[in-house]
Amino acid sequence: MSQARTFPRGGVRPPDRKSLSEDQPIRKACVPSFALLPMRQHAGEPARCLVSPGERVREGMLIGRAEGPGAANVHASVPGLIREVLEVVLPSGARTPAVRIELDGEFECTGRPQTARNWREFIRHELLERIEEKGVVGLGGGQPTAAKLRAAGRPQLLLVNGVESEPYLTADHRLLVEKAAEVLTGAQIVASLFELEPAQVLLCITEDRRQTLASAHGQAAALGFRVEPLAARYPQGEEQQLRLALAGGLDALVLNVGTLLAIYEAVVWGTPLIERVVTVSGSAVRRPSNLKARLGTRLRELVEDCGGLAGRPERIVVGGPLRGFAVADLEAPLTKEMAGVLLLGRGELRARGSGTAGEAACIGCGRCIEACPWGLRPLELYHWIREGEPRELRRLGLERCTECGCCAYVCPSRIPLVRWLAGGRWL
Amino acid sequence: MISAPHLHAGPTSRRMMLSVVVCLLPAGLWAVVRYGPPALYVLLASIAASLLTELAIAALAFRRFTLGDGSAALTGLLIGFTLPPAVPLYVPIAAAVFAIAVVKMTFGGLGRNWMNPALGGRVFVMFSWPVFFHASPAAGRADSLLRWIWNGTPGAIGDVSATLLVLGSVYLFVRRIIRWETPAAFIGSFSLAVWAFAGLPHGFFRGDLPLYLLTGGLLLGALYQATDPVTSPLTRVGRLVFGAGCGLLAFLVRRFGPYAEGVAPAVVFMNMLVPLINRLTRRAAC
Amino acid sequence: MLNLRDNPLLLYALGICPALAVSTRVDNALVMGLLVLVVLMGTTLVMAALEPVLPEALRLPLALVAAAGLVTAGDLFLRTYLPGLREGLGIYVQLVAVNCLLVGRTETGRRRLSEAAPEAFGQGAGFCLGLLLVALVREVLGAGTISLFPVGSFSGTLRIGGLAEQPVRILLLAPGAFLVLGYLAALYNRSRS
């Protein structure tokens, strides 16, 4: 049994909490009666809205066109009538126009036999166009995938990211258990784009999941891919940490398993990105599940799909518990970048002293330095941000910070370091 | 606005402070048993003065209530531990007021001071009322096991039982509230210096190690005082250097100076060098 | 103009070397302060009188010579009439000649007599008062006494009962000097703003 590889320094080992949902097979969520689709479900500029109230849309129809850097197409996730175009505030705080569709009419994609294309028939730029046209974005971080692939140059490795190192989240895990064939086909498609040999494709999983992912392992090996078990540390699932662990000095392209599935769906079946697998978990939800849900479904409906609330949640988090956004209610819509919806109860937050003590003074304990995967010194950065000295911040390397949250996770004074560090970039 | 991460690990800083207080209580109680009510009054006086001073200054100067972080109580307790049980009460009160008002609050409160507050207070009273702090002749060799539990040599309140101090520190090491580098280097270099030089002028390598370790506040200083995170270096190598320096200086002051202990001046001096140590060990592994 | 608001000792930290050294007793501080005032005034008068004919390059040397002369005169006076106290002041008497307060005045102070004289007086008096204040705090708390001059049946020293037995001795040492000066300067600055 080989030693699991990992990134060289820092990192933390938060409690896993995946047992709540990791054995729950992916289940289709109910189709919502209203879908609220933001024009910005990706990391860049909002798409330009192509529809107006009163129009009818079909399932999978293009309703927002990507214009501007970092934008991606947005498609209607349900057929129906455009009720209004309004501005919404996303959990991240960003404002964006959004389209509200009232469900009505026939489903053209779902439930009907579709024609599969042989992906090998496409030439390179056709593949990229399909991926772009169908609005595929990185389901881990929101970067438009076609743009990412176009900018990738000549990578020598493709890392299939099935690590999912944040607690509670199990969507990617279930995808590997149930849909490994499709995910790996997506990987083949991407490998072909860059003329990579099968041995240059690495399926990255955590070592404590080797047993449960034996089937995926087998399928990957059958295709000639390598399988790399990695240590279960956070933030192993981040692109840079994967590269540090596996790539050596080589140029590596990293894609999340959910994204690869979306690529497969887009290329082979022509399906635009209109649904995703999301983990709904936490002690305050009755039946933690992995739902395959339509984009635009309000989170409240997803929770109802899981049996509703089991008590009052102390905090609602969209995303993972270490990087996600706290929201005040469940009215936000499901978007492409949401990997999880966590209903956290008092016990889960208090168990480790979170949320109790307010922000105290920095005592210089240095735990944040030990935790930082980049070898930065968060307490010094914090000090200089408070003093307002951008030159010192540059000298200390603030631009390398990826806001992974390891420093704030270990801080005994519960200083919201991520918020400070993010603010420091604006100095 | 609540921001990520939404989970945290380890004890909060308040819990860390209170843990240290709790770990010191056995030794404190034993001291009260051994030395009687005067020891209790000294401890209470220093804790009370510490709390009141911080309460007043935080309210007047910072307009905040800071007693909740537990550091003032801990400072008061540690000050009491460094004092002999028979001092008049103005001594612990003066030490506490100096420690909190001058050493800690003048620089901005918790986390901003460069000098260890309790030891700063101790140095203040050591130089102000030296008559209470002269070296007392060591009553015989301290090599019996009993000494580890019951220190017959009158000294500071915290000197009363090496065993209880060490036992209390085990929990703190396990929870990583105290890092091992500083105490290890401190005790290590101190022991080495004692063994090599304490026997002078009779010769080298004849030092009475148990005596030096059990009296003079060494264990208290090495385990509980020098390990104060605010005034310690940030890196492992840095802490080793810091501890080693403390040990050497503590020995020099103790052996060749007129005072009963050298821990306080030594640590306070090394505190001054911590920013330099941090800068020099920046690249070192943590 | 007579400026008593900008205290050279507490605001500008001029002349803190003698201030820290001699402020262990009130009588020492008083004598030192008055000496500085006298030398300051005298030097200013000499400089102002010679201003019309004095080349720029000779200003500083002349000031030092004048100061040295006045200090020597003062020193002789003290040795004659206050020998014990003169012993206590040690080398700091001679150092008044190169006190930065004085030298600084030479370069940046006003030139015309009608303006220079009040300015010098203000600075000298300010220094003296600041010094007295520091000495008062240090001696009262650090020794429990206030040392003044014997007059008639008064021995010259006031003792403050409890404090004199066990004073806060550190205040008479160097760290205490910095502490007292620092906090007084802080309080003074606070009261100005």
Structural category of chain B is mainly alpha
- The end-to-end span of chain B amounts to 32 Å
Estimated radius of gyration of chain B: 18 Å
Number of distinct beta strands of chain B? 0
Strand content of chain B: under 5%
Taking all residues together, what is the mean pLDDT of chain C? 87
In N-to-C order, the SSE pattern of chain C is HHHHHHHEEHH
Oligomeric assembly: heterotrimer
**H/E element sequence of chain B:** HHHHHHHHHHHH
Q: What is the CATH C-level name of chain B?
A: Mainly Alpha
Strand order of the largest sheet of chain C: 1-2
**Helical proportion of chain B?**
55-70%
Radius of gyration of chain C: 18 Å
Helix/sheet category of chain C: mainly alpha
Mean pLDDT of chain B: 88
In short:
With 286 residues, chain B is mainly alpha-helical. Chain B is 62% helix and 0% strand.
Describe this protein's structure.
The complex is a heterotrimer of chains A (427), B (286) and C (193). In chain A, 27% of the residues lie in helices and 19% in strands. Chain A is built from 14 helices and 17 strands. In chain A, strands 1-14-13-17-15-16 form a 6-stranded mixed β-sheet, sandwiched between helices. In chain A, strands 2-8-7-4 form a 4-stranded antiparallel β-sheet, with no helix packed on it. The longest helix of chain A is centred in the middle third of the chain and has 14 residues, at 180-193. Chain B has one domain (13-280): Ammonium transporter fold (Orthogonal Bundle). Helices cover 62% and strands 0% of the residues of chain B. The longest helix of chain B has 26 residues, at 37-62. The longest helix of chain C has 31 residues, at 113-143. In chain C, α2 (26-50) packs antiparallel against α3 (59-81), α3 crosses α4 and α7 (113-143) crosses α9. The model of chain C has no long low-confidence stretch (mean pLDDT 87). Chain C has one domain. At the A-B interface, α10 and α13 of A face α1 of B.
